[in-house]
Specification:
This is HAD family hydrolase. GO terms for molecular function: magnesium ion binding; phosphatase activity. Keywords: Hydrolase. It comes from Weissella muntiaci. The chain folds into two domains: 154 residues, HAD superfamily/HAD-like (Rossmann fold), CATH 3.40.50; 106 residues, Hypothetical Protein, Haloacid Dehalogenase-like Hydrolase, Chain: A, domain 2 (2-Layer Sandwich). 34% of the residues lie in helices and 23% in strands. The longest helix has 14 residues. It has 274 residues and is of the alpha/beta class. The strands form two sheets. Strands 5-4-3-2-1-12-13 form a seven-stranded mixed β-sheet, sandwiched between helices. Strands 8-7-6-9-11-10 form a six-stranded mixed β-sheet, with helices on one face.
Length: 274
């Protein structure tokens, strides 16, 4: 087995439910990966700034990032690729949301280069919860007037709304124009057409001459599927929902709360997994 790139999702995968991981062990594994010339990639729906916060304890400059579910790809601090949503596209999705969920209080979040944005009508309690997942979160009067490059629009609904059905509807309505994917926590992410975590790995592979058969990836949710199907060595987390195990047969050695990603990386580097 030749490994040159290891990519992992964050929420429900590398991160424990308290959004931490074993920092000392991660440092040791990063040292070993660096010594072997293996690239470590955080591939997540999170913003770049939020991802860097997660790696503050181990050195965010040591990590490469596929952020906003593939809309922004960075290598050693340099942008390799980015895909943004136009004002017209944002307006179309917001109009779709208003038409389908007019009587429901749901949250619309724009993730951009300078920060994240929500309506100034969002209650303080929801703002406080949302700030746990976004850096530089700002309330604005009109989302469509935000002066920023927008990588992703997220729709967050109450648990009574089916994420699967919402993704299906968005993909039907915006076929060939936008990409929609479930992103956990009852949310749907809308991205530029053809953008996902796989496209992020494609960009890294192209730039660094790394083939899919030299890549490992870890994930737990629908927004990881393209990435997991792309690499030769995909691992789904034991804590993932059943539909993920139906699609990806190889399972990480432990769940997210028991350091499953780190256990599996260690076993791969030691030659205990092939």
């Amino acid at each position: 087995m030749t490994l040159k790139l290891i990519a992992t999702d964050m929420d429900g995968t590398l991160l424990r439910d308290d959004r931490t991981y074993d920092y000392d062990r991660m440092r040791r594994l990063l040292d070993e990966m660096d010594a072997r010339g293996i690239l470590f990639v955080a591939a997540s729906g999170n913003q770049l700034g939020q991802l860097k916060n997660y790696f503050a304890e181990v050195g965010p400059e040591r990590i490469n990032y596929v952020s906003d579910n593939g809309a922004l790809v960075t290598y050693r601090g340099e942008t390799l690729a980015e895909a943004t949503l136009s004002r017209t596209q944002l307006s179309q999705v917001i109009t779709w949301n208003n038409a389908n969920f007019a009587k429901m209080e749901n949250l619309i979040i724009l993730s951009g280069d300078k920060g994240a944005y929500v309506s100034n009508n969002v209650p303080a309690s929801i703002m406080a919860e949302t700030e746990k997942y976004y850096t530089n979160l700002m309330q604005v009067e009109k989302l469509l007037d935000v002066d920023d490059q927008i990588f992703k629009l997220s729709l967050v609904w109450p648990p009574t709304v089916s994420v699967y059905e919402s993704v299906k509807s968005l993909r039907t309505v915006f076929e060939g124009e936008l990409h929609a994917t479930g992103s956990g926590f009852g949310s749907v992410d809308v991205l530029a057409h053809g953008v996902n975590k796989q496209t992020g790995l494609v960009e890294l592979g192209k730039s660094l001459n790394i083939r899919p058969d030299e890549m490992v990836a870890f994930g737990d949710n629908a927004n990881d599927l393209e990435m997991l199907r792309f690499v030769k060595y995909p691992f789904v987390m034991p804590n993932a929902e059943a539909f993920m195990h139906d699609r990806i047969k190889q399972t990480a050695l432990n769940n997210n709360n028991e350091n499953g990603v780190l256990d599996t990386i260690e076993a791969l580097l030691d030659g205990r997994l092939h």
